[in-house]
Amino acid sequence: MVARVVPAGLTDEHELLRKTVRQFVQARVEPQAMEHDQAPRFNTQLLAEVGELGLIGATIPEADGGAGLDATASVIVHDELAYSDPGFALGYLAHALLFVNNFYWAATPAQRQRYLPGVLSGAVVGAMGMTEPAVGTDVLGMQTTARKAGDGDDYVINGRKTFITNGPEAGVFLIYAKLADRITTFVVERGFAGFSTGPAIPKLGMRASTMSELIFEDCRVPAANLLGREGGGITNMMRNLEIERIGLAAMSLGMARRCLDAMVSYAMERRSFGKPLTEHGQVQRYIGESYAKVEAMRALIYNVAATVGPDARSRLGTDAAKLFAATAAKEVADAAVQVLGGYGYCSEFRVEQFWRDAKLIEIGGGTLEAHQKNITRDLTQR
């Protein structure tokens, strides 16, 4: 493994967490990674094992069953998981951040008591539904609607969500819909009348996680499943967006680290024209630039993570971290494929998988263009 520069500000607790996660990844995640990428299938049993380690609730207070850790701890988990299995890491992120973290900070004590035990253990898979077939980044343009039922206090949801990670497996969903033209959040269980999911959607990468459409046809949602207040969906969304983005950036770091390690190891062992690949200038360029990108990613991501929390805002920082890391990871993966040549294009060393997987971070959780827009707007505000 290539030597790393240890980010400033990490505590002994953070380093112990990294050691624990890394041991788990080597023992339990790595052996199943290629199988589930090729299947393609999300390993829900492995998610339950992550739950047993207490890692699903990394950002949830100990008093409510979580680990009581910070955003830096979340970054460590996503970084280490993505080094071995980016698809599983994505499914974990959709569960632990898009559902669990998002749900917790908006939920009432009664809602926490009802849903947290199942999702923190991993026995129940969670998902979040925001993206729609006709609108992606344009959240305010969403067309899924909610209304009060005429025969009581329930809500009735109609519409569709698409590209929803964990859609095929999830038992509980955090859903955004427009109630009287105001975005509002609801908790929807798979068994609710009028709710269904479509078949798994085939995709380019991240194949060890699955996604599908969510379909609402006069879906009845009890009033008790309103999350937060009516019209409070944007508040819920924005509170969670930053830890989501820093988690995705951490996944990019994990993927880039794996590709750099593969590149260095291969170049040290392979000979060409009578000398090791490491003595060829072009290979040295790929390795040197990739190492610099990995360390720049690491420094930015961990620096920004220290500023993120449920009561701390760092939109500019998380936009910058994800914007840079997403592109850098794809470039490092591309360099790894090039250095490994035909072996890189085939599946044996898995760098072709990481090349495919890295592209997702340029799209999901905010496109590159959305980050560029946000950064420009924040820097030019008077």
Can you offer a commentary on this structure?
- It is built from 11 helices and 10 strands.
- The chain has 382 residues and is of the alpha+beta class.
- The strands form 2 sheets. Strands 1, 2, 3, 4, 5, 6, 7 and 8 form an 8-stranded mixed β-sheet that branches. A two-stranded antiparallel ribbon has the order 9-10.
- α7 runs antiparallel to α8.
- The model has no long low-confidence stretch (mean pLDDT 95).
Tally of alpha and pi helices: 11
Instruction: Compute the number of strand runs.
Output: 10
Q: In terms of structural class, how would the helical and strand content be classed?
A: alpha+beta
Distance between the termini: 46 Å
Largest sheet: 8 strands, mixed
Order of H and E elements: HHHHHEEEEEEEEHEEHHHHH
Q: Return the average pLDDT rounded to an integer.
A: 95
Helix content: 40-55%
| Coarse shape | globular
- Proportion of strand residues: 5-15%
What is the CA-based Rg, rounded?
A: 21 Å
- Oligomerization state of this entry? single chain
Low-confidence spans: pLDDT under 50, at least 5 residues?
none
Summarize the structure.
Helix content is 52%, strand content 14%.
Task: Detail the topology: elements first, then pairings.
Blueprint: H1 12-38, H2 44-52, H3 71-84, H4 86-106, H5 109-121, E1 126-129, E2 145-148, E3 155-165, E4 172-179, E5 182-189, E6 195-197, E7 211-221, E8 226-227, H6 233-269, E9 271-272, E10 275-276, H7 281-305, H8 315-340, H9 342-345, H10 351-359, H11 368-380
Parallel strand pairs: 1-4, 2-4
Antiparallel strand pairs: 2-3, 3-7, 4-5, 5-8, 6-7, 9-10
Helix pairs in contact: 1-3, 3-4, 3-6, 4-5, 4-6, 6-7, 6-8, 6-10, 7-8, 8-10, 8-11
